[in-house]
Amino acid sequence: MSMMTNKPKRQILRAALASLLAMQLGAAATPAQAEDAKLLRYAFVAGETGFDPAQISDLYSRIITGHIFEGLYKYDYLARPFKVKPNVAAAMPEVSDDFKTWTVRIKPGIYFADDPAFGGKKRELVAEDFVYSLKRFFDPATKSPAYTAFAGLGIIGLDELRQAALKDKKPFDYNAPVEGLRALDRYTIQYRLKSPRPRLIYNITGGDQYGAVAREVIEAYKDKTMEHPVGTGPFMLKSWRRSSQMVLVRNPNYREVFYDGEPNADDARGQAFAAQFKGRRLPMIDRVEVSIIEESQPRWLAYLNRELDLVTVPLEFSNIAAPKGQLAPNLAKQGMQMERVVNTDRTMYYFNMEDPVVGGYTPEKVALRRAIGLATNINREINTVRRGQAVIAQSVVAPSTWGYDPMFKSENSDFDLPRAKALLDMYGYKDVDGDGWRELPNGKPFAIEYASQPDALSRSFDELWKKNMDAIGIKITIKAGKWPEQLKAARAGQLPIWALGYSASDPDVQAGLEILYGPASGGQNLARFKLDRFDEVYRRMQDIPDGPERLALLREAQKLTTAYMPHKYQVHRIVTDLAQPWLQGYKRPPFGNMFWQYVDIDNAKRPAKP
Q1: Under 8 Å between Cβ of 465 and 378
Q2: Which residues, 6 or more positions from 194, have their beta carbon under 8 angstroms from its beta carbon?
């Protein structure tokens, strides 16, 4: 009887999932999906925010912009841990001995994708485009979340132009000359800095943020620039359904670029790719379709049903796909390919330091955050919800970035309920009325609000963290919302606590520390943490070369953040990527987010459509 009752339910569920996948993956055939076209299909787990490099900071949007816009330099696709190479630049930069003057010459004959803003003419990339693009981060009207990072470079005269616009309440003057940011001629850019910047190369590598935009396009589309990206990169945006699907196609104006990866000598897979693709013109595929599938089961099902060509295995299915870290035999027999790495990221939840409940720098507020941290069982998170697919994080420093030491240990990773309870008791967070929940030191009711997302995986994390807080008598309420909306609220300082992940954008640690730098509050610094000594350390680290002095400063920064705990760091994620047999050449990039132009699709191996 039960089998007869459940069978129709399973059929209904399968039909519903199939319908959902058809809608999310854009199942209707289009002319661009001709049998000989090479199409890459995969999915994001959260929605994008838009495609204007100066206005974005989230990973999902930056993956898209990294393939549309181009930076002066790029990361070699195969080299590990990394190698910076010229992209639109003709050569590596000329750098003065004091690291204060950087001069870059770009290649002539590079053109933007066609757009009505150009009036029917081919538009060449010139040095002035990089001058204009960088100025946009300083325009108050842009409201760039990356402003603080670029302001920290100390380009002579550039921030003064911004301050003048703010003081006079006038539009930013893009035509005003800036001493430290000049196009010396049509193809030469020079950066002059107030202080040494030994690692400026990372700030001008990659197109996801500092990619060249054309002034005509920005002025033509005004407040619609997030919807109209026009760059010189290998792909261009064909269509966009917000938080649903993005379709990109090969840019016909893309110049002659050939596969030239330089893998490590002991990297057999990388060496095989280099031999297979060396000399091939890029990109090798014609079209990319990116869907937003937030729930893990439909995303995994879409991959198994051959409707996605690439997937990062959802945590719930990680031990099915790769038991004990090895590709499952049934998937290996189908020719699927696996790559498994410790990602260059860190997951964390931040405390809004301006929030009246969890924020502040007084002893009782610091004690509250540290007690919450001590009550958070990260090992249980790794062993249950994460299925072992992570390593515990000790600080903000991400694996593969400068200063990361796998042997470094901090209190951040401690789980100690007795200490947590003792801290709360000591600073007056006690259960006064006997209802099982602690009150504030002044005796008033006490509850903390925690922001999350509505998908099933997020709910699993929420349930675990609620149990952690229940164990020390702290009542929490969970406020779920879509990821892009939560990010917007976080930047506005409206979320007391929110959990999220940060991927390293480059091989240096400085960008990671920016999320704690006081002047970056409201931008990258979502916690709005402001501590004079930390800011002094941050600025000094910018000025000096890598070495013992800089490392000592980094260790001090780690101690300060552990002591004040504006963040509770959780894990560095282990990611397992699976590629279908017909997707060739995929390798997860540690930095730069770019891989589309380096992969190929063998349509002969793709199963025939029913």
Answers
A1: no
A2: 100, 154, 155, 156, 180
How far is residue 458's CA from residue 610's CA, in Å, rounded to a whole number? 36
Q: Report whether 41 contacts 307 (CB < 8 A).
A: yes
The predicted structure's pLDDT at residue 13? 42
Rounded distance, CA 188 to CA 18, Å?
Answer: 54
Task: Write the pLDDT tens digit of every residue in 366-380.
Answer: 999 999 999 999 999
Q: How many CB atoms lie within 10 A of CB 107?
A: 14
Looking at residue 36, its pLDDT comes to 78
Q: Which residue has the tokens 């480059």?
A: 506
Question: What is the spatial distance between Cα 358 and Cα 370, in angstroms, rounded to a whole number?
Answer: 11
First to last CA, the chain: 34
**Residues 310, 291: contact at Cβ < 8 Å?**
no
Confidence (pLDDT) at 2: 31
Q: What is the pLDDT of residue 576?
A: 97
Work out whether the CA dihedral 396, 397, 400, 401 comes out positive or negative: positive
What is the residue whose two structure tokens read 């919800």?
385
pLDDT of 385 reads: 95
The confidence score (pLDDT) of residue 564 equals 98
State residue 522's pLDDT score: 87
Q: Residue 340 pairs with which residues in a beta bridge?
A: 576
Q: Which residues have C-beta within 8 Å of that of residue 286, sequence separation ≥ 6?
A: 32, 37, 38, 39, 249, 250
Cα distance between residue 357 and residue 353, in whole Å: 9
| Both tokens assigned to 407 | 């042997």
Q: Do the bridges between strand 447-452 and strand 475-480 make them parallel or antiparallel, or are there none, so unpaired? A: parallel
Please name which of 274, 138, 120 lies closest in space to residue 210, comparing C-alpha atoms.
Answer: 138
Is the N-terminal amide bond of 283 cis, ω within 30° of 0?
yes
Closest CA relative to residue 291, chosen from 236, 241, 249, 336: 241
Q: How many residues does the chain have?
A: 610
Instruction: For residue 86, list its beta bridge partners.
Output: 73
**What angle do helix axes 158-168 and 127-136 make, rounded to 10 degrees?**
50
Burial 216-235 (b: 16+ CB within 10 A, else e): bbbebbeeebbebbbbbbbb
Predicted local confidence at residue 256, as pLDDT: 97
Rounded CA separation 221/55 (Å): 14
Residue segments in the chain with a per-residue pLDDT below the cut of 50: 1-20, 22-24, 26-33
In 3D space, the residue among 129, 130, 125, 187 whose CA is nearest the CA of residue 155 turns out to be 130
